Amino acid sequence: MAVDLRAEITLSVVIPMYNEEDALPALVSRLRPALDGIGASYEVVAVDDGSADRTASILDDFRAEWPELRVVQLRRNSGHQAALTAGLHSSFGRYVVSIDADLQDPPEKIPEMLELAQRQKLDIVYGVRSDRSTDTGFKRRTAGAYYWLMRRLVGKNVTSQAGDFRLLSRDAVEALKALPDQQQVYRLLVPWLGFPSGEVTYHRDERVAGETKYPLSKMIRLAIDSITSFSAAPLRIATWLGIISFFACLGLLVFSLVAFVSGVAVPGWTSLFVAVLFIGAVQLICAGMLGEYVGRIYTAVQQRPTYFIGSDSASAPAPAPAKAVKSEERARVSVLS
Ligand code: UDP
Ligand code: MG
User: Domain Glycosyltransferase 2-like, which positions (predicted)?
Assistant: First the structure.
């Protein structure tokens, strides 16, 4: 029986990427020397999150000359956290580092993370941003509000300023894989696991090329997923809003009765209008909150995977340097194998 070389991999570096054709050459030119220098076996798991640009073909080209590069192709865009899940689940390494493709997180810190984890026997090493001066004011403020809220909901061990640049041991990855959660928000789940952890601080750079793949809509989605996956507090807010509006209505009732008895003719339209609007708004908020949780239950019951792997270069033969195997051919091979 052949020796399983996968068991020998010390480090897997998982990189979710979506339409990152502009950032890729710079990423490879900094990541490869950093990883070649650690003196241990490694693999780079590039998860192509259904990119519509040339990300896939550029990755193929790099793979022809960089054997440690492995490309996991998702069939369609599934989102950053789902792409991370795909990468974590596919990785083989004894340690797994996740990093963004846009070089905002410096690859040169990866050896430091690995060394710290091995030396102090840590299961998790967070990359902690020393400052966010390169982010826009809007991004800083929304991120600040997000972490403030998460620390209150999830607990003090949520490291603010820690995004998705972190190292996990195989044990931590297996613990994450065993969780039944559908929409996993790793920056909250990882601290919640309670493994011994350390930190490496770094300076967050500007995106090396291209534009952010996180528009406001995706940021709001992440915030809603984060809150509803960790707390039922919003449901209690709904109850409180209901109670408050109930007492407000009682007050209005007393007021209208007094007005009626004392014979004051109330023109009435404004107060009625405001009351109707208020009650309507409260009801909609409550229904919306219930909907978020019902939605989560619905997704959990469906048990659908959050991503689909179209092809994984680890299950296809490595392309020859001179003539790279075309991605369609590789996809066919991986379907057959
Ligand atoms: N990303 C992804 N799928 C998506 C959106 C983003 O895989 O649907 C990747 C993206 O390519 C990058 C990482 O997630 O490697 C973080 O995204 P980005 O840098 O755009 O976010 P920001 O730093 O602006 O918050
Ligand atoms: Mg970025």
Answer: 12-175
pLDDT at 330: 42
Which residues is 48 bridged to in the sheet? Answer: 17, 73
Backbone angles phi, psi at 180, to 5 degrees: -80, -5
| Contact predicate 129/166, CB 8 Å | no
Q: Which residues contact 133 (CB under 8 A, 6 or more apart)?
A: none
What is the C-alpha separation between 221 and 226, in angstroms, rounded? Answer: 8
| Minimal-distance CA residue to ligand 1 atom 17 | 213
Which range, of 43-47, 134-138, 170-174, averages the lowest pLDDT?
134-138
Distance between CA atoms of 145 and 125, rounded to whole angstroms? 24
Side-chain-side CA neighbours of 104 within 13 Å: the count stands at 27
Determine if ligand 1 sits within 6 Å of the CB of residue 80. yes
Q: Could you tell me the pLDDT band of residue 317, with boundaries at 50, 70 and 90? A: low
**Could you give the strand order of the β-sheet that contains 11-17, starting from the edge strand earlier in sequence?**
197-202, 124-129, 162-169, 95-98, 11-17, 42-48, 69-74, 309-312
| Lookup result for tokens 């991605």 | 327
Which of the ligands is closest to the CA of residue 139?
A: 1
SS (H, E, C) 248-296: HHHHHHHHHHHHHHCCCCCCCHHHHHHHHHHHHHHHHHHHHHHHHHHHH
pLDDT tens figures, 282-303: 888 888 888 888 888 887 887 8
